Amino acid sequence: MRPRSIAVIGASSTKNSIGRQILRNLILYEFQGKVFPVNLKADVIQSIKAYPSVLDIPDPVDLAIVVVPRQYVAKVATQCGKKGVKGMVVITAGFKEAGRTGVQMEKEILEITRKYKMRMIGPNCFGVVNTDPAVRMNATFGKTFPGRGKIAFVTQSGALGEAIMVKAEELGIGFSMVASVGNKADISGNDMLEYWSHDSDTDIILMYLENFGNPRKFIKIARELSRRKPIVVVKSGRTAQGARAASSHTGSLAGMDISAEALFVQSGVIRVDTVEALFDLTVALANQPIPKGRRVGIITNAGGPAILATDSLISQGLEAPPISEKTKKKLAEKLPPGLNISNPLDLIAGAGPKEFEAAMRIMSSAKEFDAIIPIFVPPITVDPKEVSRAMVRGLSKTKTTLACFMGVTTGSEGVSILRENSIPVYQFPEAIGKTLERLTNYREWLDRPTGQTPKFKVKKSIVSAIVKSYQDSDCAEIIGSDALTILEAYGIPTAGYLVADSAQEAISCAGQIGYPVVMKIDSPKILHKTEVGGVILDLRSAEEISAAFEKLQAKLVKNKIKGALSVSLQSMVKGGVETVMGMTYDPTFGPLIMFGLGGIYVEVMKDVSFRINPLTDMAAIDMIKSVKSYPLLKGFRGSKSVSFEALSGALLRLSQLVVDFPQFQEIDVNPFMSCPAGKRSRAVDARFILQKDAG
Predict the structure, then answer these.
(1) Potential cystine with 222: which of 267, 496, 586, 677 (Cβ 3.0-4.6 Å)?
(2) Residue 607: per-residue pLDDT
(3) What is the distance between the terminal CA atoms of the chain, rounded to a whole angstrom?
(4) CA distance 178 to 132
């Protein structure tokens, strides 16, 4: 990213060729080092002496930009290695993305790169940019010359890189560096994050990602870096079409995008869904302080947009608190009489610079607001430029301010005045609501303690013996009493569990457990017992036990399951909320821990959260709080709050179990009855699936 000399291998004089455009960009952008065109047939390209190969260049070469047909890239890479080139940017496409032959060719150039201890960006990329005045390198084939700024940008898509630079220029956003990494054969987004973590010219990092090469390395880098420099990511691939089929609740709920979402949440990365949202957030981060809370004050000259803004804020989990009496008094002294002073503050259509300046100054200094949204819809009688200047005069430098100018073009003078004074301008209030929501989430992540991963005393040998016995018998599924024994060995409490093969034996078991009890069919051939009527609740006598046994025997016949009936009996757990916890193994991200609303509704409601293992104590609590049913757990309409200590403790012990036994492919603990403090929260049922190659 800071070369003193560049060889453009494949430089050309042919119009509209990539080799010509890259060389031209280096010259026009005024690269501060030496440039050497390399072309087998030309002596001079764009008035610069050309060389037949990089080996013929008399001076040292730091960086090679490679723009030759793919069949020649390996030869060129070898020549670069012999020359002592430190890095290559391979623009050429047709490698991994083009099929089996391309995969092999990409592997070959990577081996050459490593043999000569070079580093490589690409192949199949757009190029690199460094706007540092001491470097001034635009080694891309784009037509945009990015301005200087404090934002670094890495993208897997070259076309998107060009589009983003064009849009950034329109919005007045400058970059420190841009790197299009293409196929990421060598240098990846992780490498760029590490590099920019030490770059004093970079304050914000933007990323466009299509996939992760090493997500565990990403989370390690990003978790530390996000506390110093915001990382904003557009991650494509939200759909679940590529999701692996799974038989467990946990596996079936872990869609294609769940892993990436969990990674971003745990590492403090701000995810956006669209390029438009990327810019909405970037202009705010680059120009305004991050809000200290969720309380927003709205100033407007039009009622409709104020309602839209309020609805957007509330729907995003933000607040539009009432104006305090102290602030009301100050506003009443400066604003025309008769105004309804409330939040949103509607100054009415005739409001001009004087009213906006007074409202901005007073509300932006009021303690009841963390952010201010001025909304202006220009009437014919008011000059937008003067209103903009008034807003700037009334601005508080310490309070987040995001403006909305409706019905005004982005290039208007009023908008330009605000942007020149570091006030981001949006066309519609809904975009501001989404931007503020992401900013406040990021603030809350920054304020949150990092947490610790506790280590519990457990009975690992018990689990090892159970796992080995199932592996030896070539059985991949652990259910029933063995599954609950595994949980007990790791300190996760379970409901009493006994197995009976006859009605009389069931009556005896119920007597040992104590009434009331639950009876279930105990068969590995039935995955979801409730779906076949295989669970009977609240049995209170020997007669009810006997009748229930006969009923379940009939269910076995109806479902054409051969063999004698075995049933399991457990104590009837009451007074808790049914939750679910579990694990599914993602081949790219590793184990994912799940928590959510459990019981028979788990796959209907799908109210679950996922985190990448291992969990910290803070991550366990965050998982619990992030589900929509959190109010049920907290206590709702007179019900008592569940014991969060017991619930988070069970999640952390499950996390340790997953670390200790990588043999597990999937785990379901459903339901886990979460009870109030003083009552025993317990796992009622569990299921473990071993990996096919476990052991």
Answers:
(1) 267
(2) 83
(3) 45
(4) 11
In the block, residue with structure tokens 């007669």: 543
pLDDT tens track for 432-481: 999 999 999 999 999 998 889 999 999 999 999 999 999 999 999 998 88
- What distances in angstroms separate CA 655 from CA 260, 453, 649, 670, one per listed residue? 19, 9, 10, 16
Contact 65, 89 (CB under 8 A): yes
- Taking 80 as the threshold, does the pLDDT of residue 348 lie above it? yes
Distance CA 22, CA 45 (A): 12
CA atoms within 13 A on the CB side of 577: 27
CATH code for residues 289-447 = 3.40.50.261
List the one residue out of 512, 517, 498 whose CA is nearest residue 567: 498
Instruction: Please tell me the distance from the alpha carbon of residue 273 to that of residue 125, in angstroms, as a whole number.
Output: 23
- Report d(CA 478, CA 469) in Å as an integer: 10
Overall average pLDDT of the 164-190 stretch: 92
CATH architecture, domain 496-572? 2-Layer Sandwich (3.30)
- Between CA 577 and CA 208 the distance in angstroms is 40
Q: Which residues neighbour 631 within 8 Å (Cβ) at sequence distance 6 or greater?
A: none
pLDDT at 241: 42
In sequence order, the β-bridge partners of residue 569 are: 498, 519
Which residue, among 165, 312, 289, 147, has the nearest Cα to 230 in the 3D structure? 289
Q: How far apart are CA 356 and CA 607, in angstroms?
A: 44
5 phi, psi to nearest 5 deg: -150, 145
- pLDDT tens for residues 39-91? 999 999 999 999 999 999 999 999 999 999 999 999 999 999 999 999 999 99
Name, in order, each residue with C-beta under 8 angstroms of 36's C-beta and a sequence gap of 6 or more. 5, 6, 7, 8, 48, 50, 51, 54, 57, 59, 61
Residue ranges, comma separated, of all CATH 3.30.1490.20 domains in the chain are: 496-572
Residue 481 CA to residue 504 CA, distance in Å, equals 20
Report the C-alpha gap between 503 and 486 in whole angstroms. 27
- The alpha carbons of the chain give a radius of gyration, in whole angstroms, of 32
SS3 sequence of 256-300: CCHHHHHHHHHHCCEEECCHHHHHHHHHHHHHCCCCCCCEEEEEE
pLDDT band at 408 (very low <50, low <70, confident <90, very high): low
**H-only helix segments in 11-99:** 18-28, 70-83
Q: Which fold has domain 451-493+574-695?
A: D-amino Acid Aminotransferase; Chain A, domain 1 (3.30.470)
Boundaries of CATH 3.30.470.20 in the chain?
451-493+574-695
- Type of residue found at 181: V
- State the pLDDT at residue 628: 87
Distance, CA of 351 to CA of 383 (rounded, Å): 11
Q: Which CATH class is domain 5-210?
A: alpha beta
In the chain, % of residues over pLDDT 70 = 94
Could you give the CA distance from residue 80 to residue 7 in angstroms, rounded to a whole number? 10
Mean of the per-residue pLDDT values for the chain? 90
